[in-house]
Write the structure tokens for this entry.
Amino acid sequence: MATKSLARQQMLGRLFIYSALLLLALYYLMPLWVMVTTSLKPLDEIYSGSFIGLPQAITFEAWSKAWSGACIGTECTGLRPYFVNSIMMVVPAVLLSTGLGALNGYVLTKWRFKGANLVFGMMLFGCFLPYQAVILPMAQVLGRLGLSGSIPGLVLVHTVYGICFTSLFFRNYFITIPDELTKAAQIDGAGFFRIFLSIMLPAALPIIVVSCIWQFTQVWNDFLFGVSFTSGSDTPITVALNNIVNVTTGRKQYNVDMASAMIAAIPTLLVYVVAGRYFVRGLTAGAVKG
Amino acid sequence: MATLDINRVRKAYGNLEVLKEVNISVGDGEFLVLLGPSGCGKSTLLNIIAGLEDITGGEVLIGNRVVNDLPPKDRDIAMVFQSYALYPTMTVRQNIEFGMKIRGIPAEERAKATNAAAEMLQMTGLLDRKPSQLSGGQRQRVAMGRAIVRHPDLFLFDEPLSNLDAKLRVDMRTEIKRLHQRLGTTIVYVTHDQIEAMTLATKVAVMKGGVVQHFGPPQEVYDRPANTYVARFVGSPAMNIIPGRLLASDGVPTVAFDTPQGEAVVRGVPLSAETAHRFAGRDVLVGIRPEHFGLDPCGTVPVGVDVVEPTGPDTLIVFAAGGTEVVARLEPFDAQVGRQERFSVKAEKVVLFDPATETRLD
Amino acid sequence: MTDISQSAAVPGTAPQRPAATLSARLARWLPRLVMAPSFLVVLIGVYLFIAWTLWISLSSSAMLPRYDFVGLEQYVRLWNTPRWHTAVINLFLFTGLFLGVTIALGLLMAILLDQNIRAEGVLRTVYLYPMALSFIVTGTAWKWVLNPELGVEKVVQSWGWDTFAFDWITRPETAIYCVVIAAVWQSTGFAMAIFLAGLRGIDSSIIKAAQIEGASLPRIYASIIVPLLRPAFLSVIVLLSYISIKSFDLVLALTNAGPGGSTEMPSTFMFAYTFQRNQMGVGAASAIMMLMTVAAIIIPYLYSELREDTHGH
């Protein structure tokens, strides 16, 4: 009898755990569900009050409008050119910051010099910088460099502040690779760059992925720099999305809003689904021992 | 010719001096072991020889050439590390060939050298594996192979056996010894294991606190240790250091120490007449190796047996003398705790130390 | 001590000493040279720019930067601005609620997930995906969900609960809670991930020992495991505080600091005064206030983390 009630109690406990987890999962999925279904509904259906249900008739009209027809300001180009802007910004920014971060991490761990800790500490604080404290001077400098309002300008900005994160990633990774490895390579006759390219980089594949994914999400999702330093047709997709959503004239096209939000979200969501493990590693890197 | 001369080498990190005026010289083909506990500066010294660390003062000469300012790659050395330091993303073959590749040696020659080394170390079947697929002993072999193919003037070993289990360690020790005999290259070998030092070295430098305590052939280090530190560090069980006194002599140096059972007297210890005269009637430290005691009904050392530890080939007897615990290694006999015995001592093997400086008296 | 050592002293065979070549000296400086550009841009982009902003905050800059010195005038103006008061009050309200709810929910999720759950991988993915979204996307989605005419309110009413009201987003006194809801939704997965990593790092024999002592599971969690998560708590608190201080995009997308400026935050205040209201000096002063708040939290944290780090090696 006693064992039976114990088993029952345990089963009830499991039931509670699973239902709590399931409920939470529904809560987290709900906004995504609403976004997707709304984007597939015709506008009339939305206004007639279908919020949570499946669309009665699936239509991709809102998606095509969001992609190539929605008006941002006076331009009715849809999100496409801004999507391209974001790509043009993300790719070089990710490559530059990851490359430089790898070099920095390598120097900081394997070629320690006097003051290396201070340099690292200064970079580390850069990870936690509230960017509001630098946007004014940055706007001035970009103007003087002739880069204001342009995508190359944003690439520069994202590289500068991205270096702080990527250096942290690579530093914390390379510190786990034994110093004896670089010593052995030195005795083998390899120089600074040879050791980096032949020994360190091949061993650093996981952290390269982490760094690229982190930078990709950060740069793609950025809004503050985009809205501060660019305008008109030069803005990245997040700024364009915000402009579409905040159009106040006429009947609000919620389905187009949601399709636009989905378009802006898909690249990072895709990366997350494909390489979630690496994404989480980047996310928690700031928490696990600087 | 690859001699190695270390002249007045100093190393300091800020105010922390880790090497203080180290002097060591070995000839071509010698096997030098740097022996000491962790933190004694032996690995720092090895890194300085390799060129992996800057030198604060003094000179390092390899083959009569000052190498202070030469980078490691120009010193004609090869090194085997404690963690083996195999490049994790390369196969065994690529690991071994990496150094040659950098030096621009043609592929054909590289392959020949690699195959020869692999054969010598019996690891031909492992060449296409990655380091992560190898056992500890196999990694050790690869690390050695990587060093061998370079045909260096000087081999450096940094505690190469300390990550292996006991059985493998003994095997690899023999392997290293055989390698040295076959190649005849000068070797510098760092370890904290005195048995490795004794079995491998032609010269041992016992270090402590950044200072070489004793530099000489292993047998000399064992028989005539320069101070009580070396005496205790080399040999297992360690040399017994018993507080005693030098008797006013009649020409034959004689020492005495007390046991609870009476006074022990040892006549004829090696000591110069001059020192014997100087220390006559004064306290000295009497150093006796465990194996230099013998069971002898007519012995001059009265002993009460405290502990009996049979090891198989011999039996260790622990007794009290001079206020410390003393260990004797004897042929197995029917030893009983609490019984009184008499031991003799090989007087000619006794080493005396100055109680004030703890250095050897000659 | 050996014969060989004398050879160095024999005249004529004096050792030759190769001088340090130029390339050798270059090699010594190479690592520093490689790092120099990165360090330089960080030095400029972070520290010089902070100093620059500080200067502007001490000047009379309005529409354009002016490099004079008016002391703390801009700070006085800032603190005399009612809108800034709203922003500061909102920041504290928001940070308190956001941290409290996120930590409680994140910890609960981590503990539940740590009970040998079947579909743990899938659930973790579901809980964490909002972190991959831009705050702008999150804001857009939640703005729609919280829409009183067509969103959740209407759904619940259509289920038969006619009097159900959920129009927080349109009311100035409650709109800030909507920002909290969206922020919690986005960040709980992050807290969960860190707590889960902490839980996985706890030696399971401790739990077994406590079970043998007869402690119940909730008891074990309350008195043994949660105290062991201290470092995880510290990390979560610090990182979430940082997120909340700089949160800008979310507020902008969700409420646009409205209705009527009721969800103003220091970040939106700074942006509005700097770029839209041509009061650069006040904007800079508010940025410096934000920076000081962040620094007060982050620097001790980094200091302690780095110190432990050097002890570890």
About this structure: DSSP finds nine helices and 22 strands in chain B. The CA atoms of residues 31 and 285 of chain B lie 32 Å apart. Residues 240-361 of chain B form one domain.
